[in-house]
Amino acid sequence: MSDAQGKAVVAAFDFDGTLTRRDTLGPFLLQLAGPGRVALRAIPLLPTLIGYALGRVPNDTAKERVLARFLGGMPADGLRAAAGLFVRSGLPRLLRPAALVRLAWHRRQGHRCIVVSASIEDYVAPWARSAGFDDVIATRLQRDGMGRLTGRYEGVNCYGAEKARRLRELLGDHGYELYAYGDSRGDREMLAMADHAYYRTMPQDENR
Predict the structure, then answer these.
(1) What is the pLDDT of residues 2-22, one digit of tens each?
(2) Structure confidence by residue, pLDDT tens digits, 128-180
(3) For residues 126 and 141, is the Cβ–Cβ distance under 8 A?
(4) Alpha-carbon distance values, 165 to 1, 158, 197 (Å)
């Protein structure tokens, strides 16, 4: 649907911490591997995790090392099955009711709704489709010639400036009115391009 000036209206939602109450990669890996194996596999990652916590290891680098450790060599079909299970049994308890109310408001107005996330596309996309989103922008994982995960990104991590770049690429140069919702420094560029930017909050008046 368009606004009074004839512009298309778009609502772009970050995923982790905005549509959900917290980061989702950790819970996904816990469900995938179990607490014991997660603890064992995380030991070699301790320098990376500590460096990230101290601001010495970039987000993109730390995340890719974690993905390589836990998902490298995994068949794509196995990841698809694990992602489906997580969407059904893990994600529902992590969702923020206020964010879903806001999404429902945008959908009632006929706005184009988009998830823009640094989380992996394999579980973000099926959840987003089931929730009624029109488009999904998320981090893609690389597959090798045998259909196994390499543990690396396909392209780059969908974080920070990459979120804004991919959103602009999807929407094109046509005029639109943009609502954007985020909760972290990884959303700043997307929020900066919005006509209506909401940081760590959901408007209440229009939901009634």
Answers:
(1) 665 668 999 999 999 999 999
(2) 999 999 999 999 999 999 999 999 999 999 999 999 999 999 999 888 999 99
(3) no
(4) 23, 9, 17
**∠ CA 83-191-62, rounded to 5°:** 45
For residue 9, give the nearest of 136, 203, 205, 180 by alpha carbon: 180
Token pair 């982790």 is at which residue? Answer: 16
**Is residue 184 classed as helix, strand or coil in its secondary structure?**
coil
> From CA 38, how far away is CA 30, in angstroms rounded?
6
Band of pLDDT at residue 122, cut at 50, 70 and 90: very high
Bridging pattern class, strands 112-120 and 135-139: parallel
Q: Are 83 and 156 in contact (CB under 8 A)?
A: no
> Dihedral sign, CA of 7, 184, 83, 70?
positive
Tokens read off for 92: 């529902």
Report the DSSP pairing between strands 176-182 and 8-13.
parallel
CA separation for the pair 159, 139 (Å, rounded): 8
> Which residues 6+ apart lie within 8 Å of 121 measured at CB?
136, 138, 139, 140, 141
Query: Of 164, 163, 177, 140, which Cα lies nearest the Cα of 63?
Result: 140
At 24 the three-state DSSP class reads coil
Topology (CATH level 3) of domain 8-207: Rossmann fold (3.40.50)
